[in-house]
């Protein structure tokens, strides 16, 4: 018997992703790099621009992990052409129309330009064509915004601040405009000075750094906010309404339209035009409401802003991402707020962590509650935000250039995913791990947060642990359980696998074998897990509960939710960390394109000889137990498929 076959994770960019992104975006980025900088078209200025342009593309292409990521980014952020087309764009290919609709349904504001044809949009299919959020249907000239909060700038040295400024300029060149909010509360308390002086000094420092790298510069704006009610807010006032509002939107929107970066201090004016110190959370909520079109514009017939959308919340904090004791790198990689908020809050309080973590998490939750589902937040340290913004360092004694690290902010913009998948096993992140491409890099401190989706586990683990049933004891019935919508579950499986399921045959096969079901969101993803009996020499022998094999029978994600939504990670994490922490197995056809994803998350794999199946497992010591190994192989070799088309397609 061979030992487990463990794959090598590759951090290198796939060639097809490079070609896709470079071909479709290089001309646009080159125009942006030269825009507003025509005076430097000769001499040293031109050389500097070319060098910055080269480094910029290195970061962009290195951050794009797959062709799908590149295409999704281009669909969301590709700027509109100045030239009007001579003929209207008509999509003749039905498949292409479907792909365009899937990109649109990602939840990021694309505007009418990228909508499919009316006929394609109206096609009544169950899984793909969902009604769009009114916030998503905006104009083609929409400005995409990342709302950045920089906390404690006095703790950031000049070199790191310069790296952050360069990263912000790169995001602007990628068509993500920046609104930067300063949080100097800690410095005000320490220095015991006027908050206006503190904000003005740090604001000038930040603006100077941004102007060194952003073609259109930056602008310190301290007069755009108004106080509408007394802070702290009365208990009767909903928190999301806030006590602060954007009183003069043009002070922010006009710089954004020309790609300048507004720098906003936590300062507002009351009804008597007196300057007031306000909370940073109040400022962030006010900007989120107004720039996402949820707040009325004063003096314009109470109309909301129509040409801006907030797609990212970025918290630059010296504390970095959210800590946790459940991961080897001691930091959350991805947080699904709908599922994990209460648990993280309890962990922060019970483990004596800084209350600032909970304040930040609560602020992010309130902001994301106002934004489309595809919006996300990133909690990141200033040092990590500045990664790869500078040239590669050289060893003066050897003259070897070190490998540049990916920039998490650029990676997040292109993929809307964390740098490291949250469902990867801890061994993949170990400093002494077996995957060189991962262990050679510093562990990430950033945390990607999404509003996410609820997670339903049946039976509820808080009430009933998933244990093998006793002989003759019935298990849950998928088609007769109050918490399971079986037709929707079948539709999810058929959409994910792209083939019809013989539902009755499947129900008969798993009768009294179901261990449990995991459902993410509105049946956007799910898993069906069973207890399987290994075949014995004598079929009449009674089953042995101690030898029942935990088996992942179906793992499905809607096609429109595959990719950056994180549904697969959410379901897989629940399975291996909550439902079956001691191990589970499954099988997949050798030609299944999803196998790479399975390889990365399993403890080991084994090709079943004389079959088309590959077995995967998460048990830590499976190969050391001969009897258990034979039981697992027997189950994976003999499971009977239940597809209605009876064709050999990937499972």
From TrEMBL:
Organism listed in the record: Aureobasidium pullulans EXF-150
Compartment(s) of residence: Mitochondrion
One Pfam family per UniProt: NAT
UniProt GO BP: L-arginine biosynthetic process; ornithine biosynthetic process
A single MF term (Gene Ontology): L-glutamate N-acetyltransferase activity
InterPro entries: AceGlu_kinase-like_sf, GlcNAc_Synth_fun, Vertebrate-like_GNAT_dom
Entry's EC annotation: 2.3.1.1
Designated name of the protein: Amino-acid acetyltransferase, mitochondrial
Gene Ontology cellular component annotations, sorted alphabetically: mitochondrial matrix
Its job: N-acetylglutamate synthase involved in arginine biosynthesis.
PROSITE patterns: GNAT_NAGS (PS51731)
Gene3D superfamilies: 3.40.630.30, Acetylglutamate kinase-like (3.40.1160.10)
Reaction(s) catalysed (UniProt annotation): L-glutamate + acetyl-CoA = N-acetyl-L-glutamate + CoA + H(+)
């Amino acid at each position: 018997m061979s030992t487990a076959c463990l794959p090598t994770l590759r951090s290198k960019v796939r060639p097809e992703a490079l070609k896709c992104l470079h071909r479709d975006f290089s001309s646009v980025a080159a125009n942006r790099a030269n825009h507003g900088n025509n005076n430097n078209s000769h001499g040293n200025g031109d050389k500097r621009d070319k060098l910055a342009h080269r480094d910029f593309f290195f970061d962009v292409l290195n951050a794009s992990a797959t062709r799908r990521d590149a295409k999704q980014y281009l669909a969301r952020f590709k700027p509109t052409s100045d030239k009007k087309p001579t003929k209207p764009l008509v999509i003749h290919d039905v498949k292409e129309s479907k792909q365009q609709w899937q990109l649109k349904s990602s939840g990021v504001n694309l505007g009418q330009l990228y909508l499919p044809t009316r006929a394609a949009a109206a096609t009544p299919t169950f899984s793909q064509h969902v009604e769009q959020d009114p916030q998503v249907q905006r104009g083609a000239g929409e400005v995409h915004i990342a709302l950045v909060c920089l906390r404690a700038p006095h703790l950031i040295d000049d070199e790191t601040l310069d790296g952050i400024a360069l990263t912000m300029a790169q995001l602007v060149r990628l068509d993500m405009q920046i609104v930067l909010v300063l949080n100097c509360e800690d410095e005000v308390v320490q220095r015991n000075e006027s908050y206006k002086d503190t904000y003005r000094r740090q604001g000038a420092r930040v603006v100077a750094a941004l102007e060194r790298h952003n073609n259109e510069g930056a602008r310190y704006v301290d007069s755009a906010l108004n106080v509408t009610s007394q802070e702290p807010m009365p208990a009767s006032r909903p928190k999301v309404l806030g006590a602060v509002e954007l009183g003069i939107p043009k002070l922010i929107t006009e710089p954004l339209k020309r790609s300048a970066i507004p720098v906003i201090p936590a300062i507002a004016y009351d009804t008597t035009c007196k300057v007031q110190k306000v909370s940073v959370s109040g400022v962030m909520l006010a900007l989120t409401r107004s720039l996402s079109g949820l707040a009325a514009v004063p003096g314009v017939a109470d109309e909301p802003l129509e040409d801006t959308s907030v797609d990212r919340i970025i918290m630059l904090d010296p504390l970095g991402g959210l800590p946790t004791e459940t991961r080897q790198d001691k930091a959350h990689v991805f947080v699904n707020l709908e599922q994990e908020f209460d648990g993280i809050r309890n962990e922060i309080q019970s483990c004596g962590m800084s209350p600032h973590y909970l304040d930040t998490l609560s602020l992010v939750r309130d902001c994301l509650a106002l934004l489309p589902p595809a919006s996300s937040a990133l909690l990141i340290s200033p040092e990590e935000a500045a990664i790869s913004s500078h040239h590669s360092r050289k060893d003066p004694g050897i003259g070897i250039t070190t490998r540049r690290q990916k920039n998490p902010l650029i990676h997040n913009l292109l993929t809307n995913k964390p740098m490291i998948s949250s469902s990867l096993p801890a061994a993949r992140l170990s400093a002494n791990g077996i995957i060189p491409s991962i262990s050679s890099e510093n562990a990430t401190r950033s945390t990607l947060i999404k509003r996410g989706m609820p997670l339903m586990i049946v039976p509820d683990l808080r009430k009933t642990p998933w244990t093998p049933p006793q002989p003759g004891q019935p298990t849950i019935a998928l088609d007769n359980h109050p918490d399971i919508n079986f037709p929707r579950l079948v539709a999810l499986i058929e959409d994910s696998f792209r083939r019809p399921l013989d539902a009755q045959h499947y129900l008969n096969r798993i009768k009294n074998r179901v261990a449990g079901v995991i459902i993410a969101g509105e049946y956007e993803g799910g898993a069906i897990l069973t207890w399987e009996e290994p075949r014995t020499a004598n079929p009449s022998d009674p089953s042995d509960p101690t030898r029942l094999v935990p088996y992942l029978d179906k793992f499905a994600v809607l096609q429109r939710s595959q990719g950056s939504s994180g549904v697969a990670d959410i379901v897989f994490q629940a399975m291996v960390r909550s439902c079956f922490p001691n191990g589970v197995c499954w099988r997949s056809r050798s030609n299944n394109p999803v196998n790479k994803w399975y390889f990365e998350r399993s403890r080991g794999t084994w090709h079943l000889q004389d079959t088309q199946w590959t077995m995967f497992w998460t048990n830590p010591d499976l190969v050391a137990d001969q009897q258990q190994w034979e039981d697992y192989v027997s189950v994976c070799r003999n499971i009977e498929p239940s597809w209605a088309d009876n064709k050999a397609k990937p499972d």
